[in-house]
């Protein structure tokens, strides 16, 4: 067997007849499969043992030789070689055809490859191949022309007239003769001359022909190999025949298709031997051609051949295509052993790095490990006995199992795996029952809940796999979300509620203003009921010795609550004492305002102090992020577990719940509604008098009702008591928000009709009062639309992720620094006056391209090629700097990837990115995963232009596919001044005239479009004249690549951030760069590129370099913007493209060109089963051996000793 890790590249080409014969172990002569009496394969049939190998291991067909010591002998009676039966998966046969046939891929594809080579239309070719017309292959001295078509009648007339002076042929033989007679080099020279003068349609056809002829010329493929004399027959185990109960057989469709070919071929041979009439032979040849077409690609031409029940048979092409095809079903996704799945339940007692694994499941998963251990401990005498013990679940196996699973991580996966946090490693803890227990903080990463979700478990077997699971994938490691670098393990629901309740303050609670000398004394007072959790008390700061207070503060009292004392106990020692959810308190120190000198009248001062807001979900997230930044993984994990325990404990103690009494009725509601009704009546009256249009009336009514709902919401906000249970739930971020409350206690508001339009009849009731029948039915539209949208969105979002992954899968961090001198000028992204993404978010974690100095003091803030940290970023913003030039993926010079400096910080770890990180895949997942949170369709507000531009998921797709946007804005092609805007009422347009320096241009814009420019404005080319989305291809045509890249980045960020989803810029940059990696050559200069060819940017630069070095003219080209689907198909790797979409087209093209796949990306390596060139699969890591680290006792954080493991790996690297 070939060692797959040893080869560098894989090539595809056309197979010559001799090549096919050389693959084969013998010719299949009969269409029989197996003998139905003996169930043995028929000799010379489709399953023949002599050709394909024995059906039983080391046993010939007749049974003369059995057992392994006859290995390699060929039986003299039946001719079968004695060997393993698995050779039936690899040995091929062949079939010699009595007449040549064409390969349908090359004749029928678009464009028809044969048609291009011969310069004939596919229709003419079809007539020849299917025996409708003759073709002149050699005109001789006759007035006929070569490649002229003749009907049967004309052929007979000319034969009669000219005898054998000309040659004409029919069927695939005729086409083969034409292909054989073709002089490729002469055709190429002729076409190159033609290109000098030709234009339009003629030129583009000539370029297409030249392209394909060049391909044949360069690839050592011969055009006549597109015609088949021999058909290869794939190994029988790949088209199996299995016996069903009841004695019937199920067989692969391919066997039926092969049988038709063999039957027709044998019949044709017999007819030829018998010298049958010409017309009968021709008909048989045509049927043979059709049979081979069906075998190769059933249904491509004419009606598909059907099997029982009118089901089209699956041909060889169908075996490769689509989700169920070979590529996607078996090569890119395989089923694995040592796996199990079960329902998940919550495991509140687990630590961050643990999961609960049902005992029986664990026993089955770790069976071989347990068996080995049983034998080693001499609990079982041999493996067979050990297996019996495990299967009977003997008492002795459980203790062994406990020891086997200790320190052996397992992987948990929840489908759909939308991002890399969908698979994490945990250390198993054996639990009773049959459900897997999951740590509550891991739910957000998996998007799991406990309403019946299931998860799969996988066991990493080798030492390397275990080391990677532990170091790279442990649940406690995955604290940050790769998409934005924010913590993904923020507590939710009751954990938030408990911590919120714990950190609340209240006036006048028992014991307010008490003084305590120590923390333990204060807690004792709480336990004995002397003070409440929310009571504000004073404590001697000196007792909090482990907290970082200033010397001054240590001599004072600290005003805090018992709850906050308990809350601060869970934080790492060096972390500031948290007394309020402010940035200063988090990052620097506890504010001075909470400290009182000894001898102050404490109760009085406290009663005058304002109450401090408790810690909500967002604040907890900020705390986690800050702890992670200061203390790294282990401390953060421990703190998270303690935070979780506190949350559960105090949400229970608080006894917060919801009853109807919590929803108080709003007194102002009838007044607000009455006013709104009056306004609507007035608007309708104005409309009846013809003073406003129907559209205006509708819009105004909608506005009135929306305003009424907002007024009610505001009134509710002010009327709510801060201790109201529902208010606490929504304010803490545990569940629900103010608009839910408005629907409970205020009014439900306007609803959308099925068409997407908003109905002007509002629902004025709320859920507490109950809805009327009509209102109930109006609101069902919205509910149903919500459900359908979610279902559609999930599928759309998943498909978007698949396309994104495909286009960026080969983007890997390949080197330290590419040394580019270019960069990206980052400034805050604004739409109108609204800041979508502030400057600080764009520059943190990136390398500065140029030194940044303070504009006033001129001191250096960040040096060139230095990473911008949070502190530096804040200094830059505080200094009033509005733009910074940073290193960017856009301008990286690394081929097939990105360098560390252009990428910057890895958002998932908060540290600099490593060489080998698959940043393309991470970018794709980061953009695709939140896709489900975006809205599906736009709400139509009754035909107001400008509001109907696409948003949400469809907008993201529109950008990445580089489509013409809906609601398109007109952009100017000249820079200059807006000279004039006139309305043309008849054509319902406005004409905008722009006076440039050289010429003046006018643009027509729809009359109801909202203008972005006024007369006298000075504008640059590429600027939009009206509101709407710009067509990126138009923008590229009139301005430079830089403008386009910035525009695309800004639009994607707007689409996501306007829905509250944050994504790191660098992910979008990776994607946009992949869309702009091709150029179209305009003038080839002295290079050998064809004009009009699309070619990779790096390759183009290389070719130009060569031309310049040899003193020639370089080629000129324009950058091309490709949508992600198109960009995936245009990739240099044919394996990656074929496994994405349009499999047959990609393979046809690759075979003709004799393409070589250099296995650069991830997909191509997965397909052939080689280590992927990312992470530990990169060459630089290949020499490292994992060493097992000593076993650690259970109470330590399992990852504690990882630092040692990592140090050891680094030490090995240095060796």
From TrEMBL:
One of its GO terms (cellular component) is DNA-directed RNA polymerase complex. Its EC number is 2.7.7.6. InterPro entries: DNA-dir_RpoC_beta_prime (IPR045867), DNA-dir_RpoC_beta_prime_bact (IPR012754), RNA_pol_asu (IPR000722), RNA_pol_N (IPR006592), RNA_pol_Rpb1_1 (IPR007080), RNA_pol_Rpb1_3 (IPR007066), RNA_pol_Rpb1_3_sf (IPR042102), RNA_pol_Rpb1_4 (IPR007083). Zn(2+) 1 binds at residues 60, 62, 75, 78. Its cofactor is Zn(2+); Mg(2+). GO terms for molecular function: DNA binding; DNA-directed RNA polymerase activity; magnesium ion binding; zinc ion binding. Mg(2+) binds at residues 449, 451, 453. It is an enzyme of class 2 (transferase). It catalyses: RNA(n) + a ribonucleoside 5'-triphosphate = RNA(n+1) + diphosphate. Zn(2+) 2 binds at residues 818, 892, 899, 902. The keyword Heme does not apply. Binds 2 Zn(2+) ions per subunit. Binds 1 Mg(2+) ion per subunit. One of its GO terms (biological process) is DNA-templated transcription. Belongs to the RNA polymerase beta' chain family. This is DNA-directed RNA polymerase subunit beta'. It comes from Dolosigranulum pigrum. The lineage of its organism: Bacteria, Bacillati, Bacillota, Bacilli, Lactobacillales.
């Amino acid at each position: 067997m070939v060692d797959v890790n040893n080869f560098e590249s894989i090539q595809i080409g056309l197979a010559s007849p001799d090549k096919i014969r050389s693959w084969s172990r013998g010719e299949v002569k009969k269409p029989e499969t197996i003998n139905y009496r003996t169930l043995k394969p028929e000799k010379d049939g489709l399953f023949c043992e002599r050709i394909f190998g024995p059906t039983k291991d080391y046993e010939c067909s007749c049974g003369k030789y059995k057992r392994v010591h006859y290995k390699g002998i060929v039986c003299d009676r039946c001719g079968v070689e004695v060997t393993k039966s698995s050779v039936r998966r690899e040995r091929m046969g062949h079939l010699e055809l009595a007449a040549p046939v064409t390969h349908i891929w090359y004749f029928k594809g678009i464009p028809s490859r044969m048609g291009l080579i011969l310069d004939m239309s596919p229709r003419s070719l079809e007539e020849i191949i299917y025996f409708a017309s003759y073709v002149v292959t050699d005109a001789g001295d006759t007035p006929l022309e070569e490649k002229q078509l003749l009907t049967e009648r004309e052929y007979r007339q000319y034969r009669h007239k000219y005898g054998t002076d000309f040659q004409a042929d029919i069927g695939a033989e005729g086409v083969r003769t034409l292909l054989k007679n073709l002089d490729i080099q002469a055709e190429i020279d002729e076409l190159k001359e033609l290109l000098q003068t030709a234009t339009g349609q003629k030129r583009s056809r000539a370029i297409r022909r030249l392209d394909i002829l060049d391909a044949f010329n360069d690839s050592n493929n011969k055009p006549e190999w597109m015609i088949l004399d021999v058909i290869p027959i794939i190994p029988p185990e790949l088209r199996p025949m299995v016996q069903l109960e009841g004695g019937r057989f199920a067989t692969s469709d391919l066997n039926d298709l092969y049988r038709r070919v063999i039957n027709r071929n044998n019949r044709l041979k017999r007819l030829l031997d018998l010298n049958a009439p010409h017309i009968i032979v021709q008909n048989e040849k045509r049927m043979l051609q059709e049979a081979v077409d069906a075998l190769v690609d059933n249904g491509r031409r004419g009606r598909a051949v059907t099997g029982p029940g009118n089901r089209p048979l699956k041909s060889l092409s169908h075996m490769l295509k689509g989700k169920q095809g070979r590529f996607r079903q078996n090569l890119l996704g395989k089923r694995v052993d040592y796996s199990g799945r079960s329902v998940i339940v919550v495991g509140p007692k687990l630590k961050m790095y643990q999961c609960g694994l049902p005992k029986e499941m664990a026993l089955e998963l770790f069976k071989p490990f347990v068996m080995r251990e049983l034998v080693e401990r001499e609990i079982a005498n041999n493996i067979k006995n050990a297996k019996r013990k495990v299967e009977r679940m003997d008492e002795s196996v459980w203790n062994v199992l406990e020891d086997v699973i200790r320190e052996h991580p397992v992987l948990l996966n929840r489908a759909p795996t939308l991002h890399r946090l969908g698979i994490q490693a945990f250390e198993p803890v054996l639990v009773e029952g049959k459900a897997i227990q999951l740590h509550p903080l891991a739910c957000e990463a998996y998007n799991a809940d406990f309403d019946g979700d299931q998860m799969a478990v996988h066991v990493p077997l080798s030492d390397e796999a275990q080391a990677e699971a532990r170091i790279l994938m442990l649940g406690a490691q995955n604290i940050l979300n790769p998409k934005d670098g924010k913590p993904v393990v923020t507590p939710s629901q009751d954990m938030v509620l408990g911590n919120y309740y714990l950190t609340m303050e209240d006036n006048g609670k028992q014991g307010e203003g008490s003084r305590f000398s120590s923390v333990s004394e204060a807690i004792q007072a709480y336990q004995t009921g002397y003070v409440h959790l929310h009571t504000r008390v004073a404590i001697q700061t000196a007792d909090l010795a482990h907290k970082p207070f200033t010397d001054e503060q240590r001599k004072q009292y600290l005003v805090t609550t018992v709850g906050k004392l308990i809350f601060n106990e869970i934080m790492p020692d060096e972390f500031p004492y948290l007394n309020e959810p402010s940035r200063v308190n988090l990052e620097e120190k506890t504010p001075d305002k909470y400290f009182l000198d000894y001898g102050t009248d404490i109760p009085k001062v406290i009663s005058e102090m304002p109450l401090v807001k408790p810690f909500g979900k967002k604040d907890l997230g900020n705390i986690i992020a800050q702890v992670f930044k200061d203390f790294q993984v282990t401390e953060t994990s421990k703190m998270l577990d303690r935070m979780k325990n506190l949350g559960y404990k105090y949400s229970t103690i608080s006894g917060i719940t919801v009853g109807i009494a919590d929803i108080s009725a709003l007194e102002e509601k009838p007044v607000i509604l009455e006013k709104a009704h009056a306004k609507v009546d007035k608007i309708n009256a104005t409309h009846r008098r013809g003073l406003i249009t129907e559209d205006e009336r509708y819009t105004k009514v909608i506005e009135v009702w929306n305003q009424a709902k907002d007024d009610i919401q505001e009134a509710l906000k002010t009327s709510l008591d801060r201790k109201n249970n529902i208010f606490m739930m929504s304010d803490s971020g545990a569940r629900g928000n103010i608009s839910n409350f408005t629907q409970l206690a205020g009014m439900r508001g306007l609803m959308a009709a099925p068409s997407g339009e908003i109905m002007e009849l509002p629902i004025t009731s709320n859920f507490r009062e109950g809805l009327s029948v009509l209102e109930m039915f109006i609101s069902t539209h919205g509910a149903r639309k919500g459900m359908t949208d979610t279902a559609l969105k999930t599928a759309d979002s998943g498909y978007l992720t698949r396309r994104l992954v495909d286009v960026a899968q080969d983007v890997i961090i390949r080197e330290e620094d590419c040394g580019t001198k270019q960069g990206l000028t980052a400034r805050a992204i604004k739409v109108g006056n609204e800041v979508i993404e502030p400057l600080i978010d764009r520059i943190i974690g990136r390398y500065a391209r140029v030194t940044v100095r303070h504009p006033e003091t001129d001191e250096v803030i960040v040096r060139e090629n230095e990473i911008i940290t949070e502190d530096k970023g804040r200094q830059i913003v505080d200094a009033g700097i509005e733009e910074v030039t940073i290193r960017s993926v856009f301008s990286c010079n690394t081929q097939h990837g990105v360098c560390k400096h252009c990428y910057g910080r890895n958002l998932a770890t908060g540290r600099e990115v490593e060489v080998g990180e698959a940043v393309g895949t991470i970018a794709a997942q980061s953009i695709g995963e939140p896709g489900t949170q975006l809205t599906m369709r736009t709400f139509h507000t009754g035909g107001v232009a400008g509001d109907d531009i696409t948003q949400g998921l469809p907008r993201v797709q529109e950008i990445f596919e580089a489509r013409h946007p809906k609601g398109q804005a007109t952009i100017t092609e000249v820079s200059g001044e807006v000279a004039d805007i006139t309305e043309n009422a008849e054509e319902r347009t406005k004409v905008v005239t722009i006076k440039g320096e050289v010429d003046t241009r006018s643009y027509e814009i729809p009359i109801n479009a909202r203008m972005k420019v006024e007369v006298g404005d000075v504008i640059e080319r590429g600027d939009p004249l009206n509101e709407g989305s710009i067509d990126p291809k138009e923008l590229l045509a009139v301005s430079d690549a830089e403008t386009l890249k910035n525009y695309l980045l800004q639009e994607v960020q707007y689409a996501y951030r306007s829905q509250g989803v944050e994504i790191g810029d660098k992910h979008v940059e990776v994607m946009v760069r992949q869309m702009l990696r091709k150029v179209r050559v305009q003038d080839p200069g002295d290079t050998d590129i064809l004009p009009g060819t699309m070619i990779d940017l790096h390759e183009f630069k290389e070719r130009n370099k060569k031309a310049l070095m040899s003193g020639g003219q370089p080629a000129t080209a324009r950058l091309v913007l490709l949508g992600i689907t198109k960009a995936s198909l245009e990739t240099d790797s044919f394996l990656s493209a074929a496994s994405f979409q349009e499999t047959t087209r990609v393979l046809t093209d690759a075979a003709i060109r004799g393409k070589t796949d250099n296995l650069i990306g991830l997909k191509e390596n997965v397909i052939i089963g080689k280590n992927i060139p990312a992470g530990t699969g990169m060459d630089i890591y290949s020499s490292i051996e994992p060493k097992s680290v000593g076993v650690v006792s259970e109470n330590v954080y399992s990852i504690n000793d990882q630092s040692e493991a990592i140090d050891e790996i680094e030490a090995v690297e240095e060796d």
